[in-house]
Structure prediction request, 227 residues.
Amino acid sequence: SQQGEEDPQALSIQEGENATMNCSYKTSINNLQWYRQNSGRGLVHLILIRSNEREKHSGRLRVTLDTSKKSSSLLITASRAADTASYFCATGSQETSGSRLTFGEGTQLTVNP
Amino acid sequence: DAGVIQSPRHEVTEMGQEVTLRCKPISGHDYLFWYRQTMMRGLELLIYFNNNVPIDDSGMPEDRFSAKMPNASFSTLKIQPSEPRDSAVYFCASSFWAGANEQFFGPGTRLTVL
Prediction:
């Protein structure tokens, strides 16, 4: 079963705007990761945040984690048409020290030029 | 490094036939994962290996599915006999465990069972 649930399922914005995607999960985690998938391609890792971290930045990406609410958000600032893709959150369970990931259903982001 | 390599990239077969998917992980990675992606069920973990040993195969849907990792540089996922509902994109991923770490995905094998 998919533990992570992304919200919204689909998001359409204009180039230059910010995009925010949310992820909720149910069990205790070791880490939470975000991946991007372009159409017809494999997933590409974007960023990892550990359960004892609250915020992390990487370029135009900002991830927050609230373990009390079991939720995370991914913010992409100053979006570009090339950011068009599906974005997945994945949770690493404490039972497996984070090595086993459970993926959510994804958010389809469309950035219009 | 060339990244995770999967073959074939596309496979079309008829119901009842045996299908073998292949994966070469990134050199030095000690974890290997097999996933299946469909529109209906999303991305599902089928099985994963650590140092060539299967650790968790609870995601393998049926006995028709089997996976092996005879050495650190090669793994196979076999479906015998195949059924139309097995049609999906199958991904292999590998990672180096240092606590929790990112997984590197291959390009996937798109399987169509007629």
